Amino acid sequence: MSEIIVITSGKGGVGKTTTTASIGVGLAMRGNRVALIDTDTGLRNLDLLLGLENRIMYDLVDVTSGRVPYHKALVRHKKFETLYLLPTSQVKDKTAVNPQQLIDLCKEMKKDFDFIIIDCPAGIEQGFQTAIAAADCAVVVTTPEITAVRDADKIIGELGRADKENVKLVVNRIRQQMVEKGDMMDMEDINEILSVECIGQVPDDEMVVMATNRGEPVITMKDSLAGQAYKNVVGRLCGESIPFLKPPKEGFFAKLKRLFGLF
Q: Averaged over 119-138, what is the pLDDT?
């Protein structure tokens, strides 16, 4: 049975699209047929993270307006044969697609895909209401900052008002050294505030930036801690019981530099 998952966040810049790309690739790596739908109309970026920006001919607005059938707008991934992207328009605004249009589209696409992953615009405006309309499950992405957590709490409340009860959490860009010094919120505080199931604790990792610039989702990078964390997120979405990664121990010289203010 096909499942529709929306990836959302209360504010921009927390890694929502990175999470969408990694979950999509991770599910495809397991042999699932996966469609990623970018609903961030006017500000699309999912194509860049997948390295597909030069292969787009049609977009989501073309499909929902009836100009082309959805399969004509799909862009197949170069490395993962069961992964497809339905990009959105760069020139239209978020009112160009309404909730019922997305519901009808997803209903049609469910016949061909095991998972449909929707990349939602940040915030709670019209684009958010459209993106969540068809979802069976919502994944809220945040970072361990009080502003991001407060916005995530707002998003969770809005999902509840929309009768979306299957809500999960991914906490991104965790810096363990800052957590230990009390300069960053820890998971106990975040879980207490948000009170939804956490399926991802993703460490801050410079390889995410490298992966983004290359158009390669970080989940494909073998030596990336963030990539491994996203593989675990995918496993948990598939019902597996996987312990969270233990934070890497700080080396002696790195600790010495930090203690003497050189780091």
A: 92
pLDDT for the residue 174: 95
Read off the DSSP letter of residue 216: -
CA-to-CA distance for 231 and 96, rounded, in angstroms?
A: 34
User: In the predicted model, is pLDDT for residue 93 greater than 90?
Assistant: no
pTM, rounded to two decimals = 0.90
Phi, psi for residue 8 in degrees, rounded to 5 = -135, 165
Cα 106 to Cα 101: distance, rounded to the nearest angstrom:
9
Return the minimum-mean-pLDDT range out of 104-118, 221-235, 246-260.
Answer: 246-260
The structure tokens listed for 77 are: 């991934």
Residue 159, C-beta contacts closer than 8 angstroms, at least 6 positions apart? 8, 132, 138, 140, 167
CB atoms within 10 A of CB 116: 26
- Name the DSSP letter for residue 107: H
139-143, 209-213, 241-245: which is most confident? 139-143
Distance CA 84, CA 50 (A): 10
